[in-house]
Structure formats: structure tokens, C-alpha cells
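We emphasize that the prediction below concerns an isolated chain of 460 residues; any contacts that depend on oligomerization or on bound cofactors are therefore not represented. The input was used exactly as deposited, without trimming of termini.
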Amino acid sequence: MLAESGVASQKTLAMTTRIMKSTQRTKGESGQVIILLALLMIVLLGFAGLAIDGGNLLTQRRRGQNAADNGALAYALKRNLGQNDSTGATAMNTILSSNGYVNGQANTSTSYSTTTSSSGGTVTLVLTSTVPTAFIHIVYNGPVQYTVQAQAQWISSIAPMAGFAIVGMSNCAAVGGNTIDVTGGGNSGGINVHNGDMFVNSTETNSSNDCAIDPPTSANNTGITVDNGFSIVSVGGYNYSGVQNMTQPITTGYNNGVPITDPLAGLSEPTCTSNGTSANGVYQPGNWNGSNLGAGTFQPGIYCITGDLTLSGQNAITANGVVLYFINGGMRFTGQAGITLSAPTSSNCLGTFPATSASCTYQGMAIFVARTNTSTIEIRGNGGSAVTGTIYGLSATVQARGGGSDGTNVNCPNLPNNEETCIIGQVIAAHAYGNGNGSLDVTYQEPVVYHPPPTIRLTK
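Result of the prediction step, given as a C-alpha cell string:
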């Protein structure tokens, strides 16, 4: 009995010892769990801070970038409208402050720099802002901020081939046909440029120097001339010295002798959305067959013309704020007929830029000949014709044709000799001809020619 009792006591003692050791381990492990939970809580708060505060930082940065982009564009727009740096900065700061970014306030810092040239410039805006946090400051004590940069460019509205009164685009070396030519004899016929240069987009094909530029041989002609201080400029390399009836010297080798491409390549051809109408000699813009147009008054707008527009006798057309768009025909006047035509301006154009049906898209464009149209546009002298603006015909011929000598044109009173036919603006055409006694006289005036719209854009 005693032996059995001793054995039981030993078992009880061993069990008690195991329970005490187990209890001790449990108390030690529970303390470790608390420490681990505390560390895990910090990690979880860190992740929460990254999720919440990081997301907020990205949102605020995007908001700041949008404000900076719009601020830079506002500055560029003002400068492109001809206003000064101070006005541009005011516009930029107005955009920034409306979005809550004021330099020196609310932990915001802004600065900008500019570069300018004769054709425009760029503005670079830098914005730095501090973002308030909710959790991340538990593990990070520094400021949470971002910096964004925006760069905008403004490009001034520059006339294509600025400074050139006549731009002869035909490359006679490649396709034949004189680029600048006086034809048909006569006593006063010629090509005369005032207040600008003349451009010839062709090399010569032979030593006689009569492909690109073919002046008259008669001493009675006015020849091919530009005013003192201006030049005839050619991509060709031929030496024209000694050629009669032509202003000398000629500047050769323009564009390293390589013919240029269409200077108005970026301008879409006009469109008309409805047919034109007329009543009592007053015509409205729209689609027209040239044979249905005649003497009278053309109201402002775009006239899309199929076939030839012809006029005879002593009839006349008056067209102010008008674009004549020749789709597959040309213009020809006979007798004493004439035209007084001026391109659309900001005060009389119709529609909204950049719609091709809006004459406001073509401010400064008086005549637009479809690029594949090879017809002839005659500005006849006997009727006292005058065109103000740009005449553009990439494949067309523009010529003066008349039978009389220079006379008085009340629409061009300030030109030398008061020429009967005058163009105030610019001619860009495949060929420019003076025919017979008709003298093609072009006076370059920068404000009235076609200008592409000014451009602003984000570059960074």
C-alpha cells in the first residue's frame, strides 16, 4: 500500500511541475504577442498612411499640374496677343490663385522664366506645394510636398513668305513653263513689285536664262522690276547679270538651291454648305456656277465657284470681305470690266475659326484657287481692277491683261504711276505673267495678307 502511495505522489508532483512550466511559457508568449501586435499596428498605420496620404499626394500633384498647365497657357495667350510680360504674369497668377495656389501663401511657391524671339517665345512655370497629412507623419516627420513644371510656347502669326510680294511657285526646270514672264509685247506690260521682294522657286534649264524668269526684249516694256532696296530672289544659281529689263542684281541660291514646298500646306481648302442666291444685283455667298455670277455687289463670305467667272463690257464687281474660291475654273474680264475685291478682315468675316466654311478662317485671303486647279486668274487693267489681300493658286497662273497704258485707278491712288491694275497684298501662284499692255503690279503690305492663326501649346 505504501509503495503504491509513493508512486502516486511522484506522479502528482511531476504533473504539477509540468503545469507550472506550461503556465510560465504561456505568460511569456502572451507578452511577446503584445509586442508583436504593437509593432504590427505601427506597420499597418504606415501602410494606411501610404494609402491615404500617398493617394492624396498624387491627387494634389495632379491638381497642381493642371493649374500650372493652364497658368502657363494663359501667359502664352496674352503674349501671343501682343501684350507684355506683366499682363501675361497677371493672367497666369489669376489662374493659379483661383485654384488655391498663391505664391508665399498656404505653403505654396511659384516662379516662372521666359525666352523670347521674333517669332514667339516660351514660358516655364515651376510650382511647389506642401500637402497636409493624416497618418504618414507617425513614421515620417519631414514635409510632404511636390513640385510640378509646365512649359508653354507661343508662336506669332507670321505671313507665309513674309516680305515677298510675288511668290512664283512653279519649278520650270521640272515641269516647264516660265515662272515669272512678260508676254505679248506691248508698251507698258510688265511685272512690277513695290515695297517687297519677288521670289522665284525654280532653277534655269539652259544658258539663255529665260525659263524661270523671262523678261521682255523690247525696251518699251516696264520689264520685271522691284523697288530700290528690294530684290528678286531665286533658288536657282544662274547669273542674270546683263539681262535687260530686269532689276539687278538677283539674289540666287535661296534655300541652298532647293525649291520650296507649298507655303500654305497647313491651310485647308474652303467649303460652302449651301447654294448662293442673288437679287437685284446683290449676291450672297455659297456654291455658285461661275456663269451665274455677274456685275453687282458680293456680300461678305466665301464663294465656291465651279467653272469660269467672266465679265465683259463696262460691268464691275464690288466685293468686300469676300473669298473667291475657284474649284475648277478661273476668272477672265474683257473690255472695260473690272473688279474691286478685298479679303475678309476681323470686322467683316463670318463664322467661327477653324471651320472651313467660315470666312474668319481665311482672313486676308481674297482669292483661293484649288491646289490642283491650273486655271488662269486675270486681273484686267482696262477696268481699273484692284484686289486687296492674298491671291493664292499653287498650280494656277495670275496675270494682268489689258490693252491700254497705265492710267488712274482710284482704288490704288498711292502707287507709282497710278496703275490701272493693282494688287495690294501678295500673290502666291505657280506663274505670274504680265500680258500685252497689262502690267501686273503688286504692292506688299503685311497687315492685309493672309496670316495663319497664332498658336499656343504645351511643350512640357
